[in-house]
Write a structure and sequence with these properties.
About 20% of the residues lie in helices and about 30% in strands. By secondary structure, it is α/β, with parallel strands linked by helices. The chain has two domains: about 1-235, Alpha-Beta Complex (Spore Coat Polysaccharide Biosynthesis Protein SpsA, Chain A); about 255-460, 3 Solenoid (UDP N-Acetylglucosamine Acyltransferase, domain 1), CATH 2.160.10.10.
Amino acid sequence: MNTDLNILILAAGLGTRMKSNLAKVLHRLDGRPLISHVCRTAEELGPKMIYTVVGHQGEDVKAAVLAEIDGPIADFAWQRQMLGTGDAVNSARELLADSDSTLLVLSGDVPMIKRSTLEALVRLHNDHHGRRAACTILTVKLQDPTGYGRVIRDELGTFDRIVEQKDGSPDQLAVKEINSGIYCFDTKKLFTALKQVGNQNAQGEYYLTDVPRILCADGEDIAIYLHDDAAEIEGVNDRRQLSAMERTIRTRTVERLMLESGVTFTDPNAVYVSSRAVIGRDTVIYQNVTVEGKTVIGDGCTIRPGVRIVDSVIGDGVEVKDNSFITDSQVGEGCTVGPMAHLRGHAVMERGSKVGNFVELKKTRLGRGSKASHLTYLGDATIGEKTNIGAGTITCNYDGKNKHETHIGDGVKIGSDTMLVAPITVGDGAVTGAGSVVTKDIEPNKLVVGAPAKAIKTLINDK
């Protein structure tokens, strides 16, 4: 942990150009809110604390931050009125003004910034000509800098000022070096300078960009870190930019999986794969497949067209057939899923088991080598090894008030259209006749039939 570094993330704005009722930093990129990406990178720097300035939908923004950052290092400040970036930082005065630290200021809507870039920025700030700077500004050069604040240098190439688009002269607006909105500050000097910031500008706002000029006028050292990758500092201002970033992340992820992990994509442009997903060697992913969240897919799998997998673990050698949906579940080695199957609610398929077309598992464990091949709902159930579930079987797990469990043993044969009214236990080796309605426990090796089902025979393999 860097005990001398605090981080402040600005995340109070609504983002009017998004044309949305949702705060901008809550819009999703790669399956997570924009601010989650910034928080993850911030935490990787090992700071003492990460502070977030919230405003619009602040409680929701706080929840998104806390979902990504461990609670003890997260704290929040409220910007009650949207009076500019200087006002946003000033909202954290009570939390930070007396801190003898370096403060890294980030924007909650700049999700592509890399840890290595921020580390380089902090290093330069802490060692600029042999001493710590009062402020260090991350800049890039753009062919078209329209809309960004320009970084103006003096005749020696050192910092002079930052000029916002609406306040710049023609000569100033011709400058291609722009302010990224990412800074390092000496924390105490920052809050001292903020007291001098006014709002005499075209926006009538308090600009954080005035602080470096004030510090420079006081004889303080201002450093500039000119970065060579403009894509990293691009903010999300509208849905077009959000979509472009999504494409960039998707393309990078698919290329990485092909080149580094040995994954085959039959059509790389027709899949969506989360950057957090892990996919093993010699797995084949067909077109129109979606892999979301922290999904793990093993080696030698086949994922057929139209499949969606979310936050699940898929073992080696699994085939997931067309149009199946797996979420929050585990599929063991050598299993077959689908087509058109649905696994959810922490369903578990053990090694070599099978679910077929129009089969749903909810909070159910299907044992090794067991099968449910057709038109079946298995909810809140535990099923043993080498058991066969006939077409049309339903575990009737809900009585109108509570959910109940079904337990089915090893080597059981459940006949087509059987209703298992939970709570119920079916013993090893038992058999139900087609159309049975089972309302009582079935002893091992018994054949039951009827509605309600009754035992009519002890099977020959009774021990």
